[in-house]
TrEMBL record:
Gene of this entry: RCCD1
PROSITE patterns named among the record's database cross-references: RCC1_2, RCC1_3
Compositionally biased region (Basic and acidic residues): 267-279
RCC repeat feature ranges: 182-233, 234-322, 323-365
Origin superkingdom: Eukaryota
Signal peptide span: none
Gene3D superfamilies: Regulator of chromosome condensation 1/beta-lactamase-inhibitor protein II (2.130.10.30)
Protein name per the record: RCC1 domain-containing protein 1 isoform X7
Residue segments, region Disordered: 259-280
Pfam families: RCC1
SUPFAM superfamilies, A to Z: RCC1/BLIP-II
Lineage: Eukaryota, Metazoa, Chordata, Craniata, Vertebrata
Amino acid sequence: MAEERRGSWFGFGFCGFGQALGSGRGRQVHSPEPLQTPGEDADVCRVSASWSYTAFVTRGGRLELSGSAGCAAGGCRDAWASEALLVVLRAGPGRGAGTELQAWAPGSALSGEPLWAHTVGPEAEGEDAPGGEPQAGALPLLPGARAYVSPRPPFYSPLAPELRARRLELGAEHALLLDEAGQVFSWGQGRHGQLGHGTLEAELEPRPLEALQGVPMAEVAAGGWHSVCVSETGDIYIWGWNESGQLALPSRSLAEVGKTAAGEASGPKEDGSDVRTAEGESGGLAPFIAIQPFPALLDLPPGTDAVKASCGSRHTAVVTRTGELYTWGWGKYGQLGHEDTSSLDRPRRVEYFVDKRLQTKATKM
């Protein structure tokens, strides 16, 4: 999703459950449309989109759900939507109860008792940024950056104090952490190369990415089984699974859609990447990459610097310093924001915002 200015949002992609994406007409929105936010004058500061529903939080602390799950609640500071859980940070029950982290079943309408609750101590709350948003701890990272929340037990996981987390992102089976010094750590399952350590092995504890040592990072993002980070100078590094071209590297599935025949695997290269070949239209063998277990530098058009990256399960989006939006990867449901629903193994600019003379802005999502 993209934000044109404070409180103005656009949506595109799958909306088969009636979740608020643009007009909501049909099951897919292929090109960006103004997002149907709750209430005519709702000042939305946070949007968290899961597959079948979307959560909105306003600066006034109101939470609204749209799609397969629907409800409204007050006193909310943040919300994080997943198919397994809806996690909210809200005022605890009773006067002076402080802030409470709550995990709910998405279809519960936040009625009754939460599945799990944890009181966030005053020392972890920190000061709010102008506009009432927490300066640190955007979910799933908690205020104070000392722990994070997961959609699977244990819901609450503490972080080692020395990590000093600035941002944390969760994929389907892995986690990425960016610390205050700009260093990236990863842990979890690694069978698709999503950890970036050059192997397909799992890591039980946060491990720094040696390949990025000495290159301070400003952003991290985790897809289902791939990972992205943006350096302080605007460079993009990407690694993991490339099944749908989400790494912007040649993809076998896209080659097959393009009426090419898969060839025999040539096996992993010395650097660990799984490079294979397919027969191209000219009859020659064209390489494709199934898994990239090391961070690879991704080039956008010359003079284009990235400031923000975001990932879906099998697609990737980047916002540039000049306010342009580039997307690539799996596009079957219009989630890339282009008029067609083709999947792409190279970045393509979303022309809607260029045509409308709008600039996309990076948000704390």
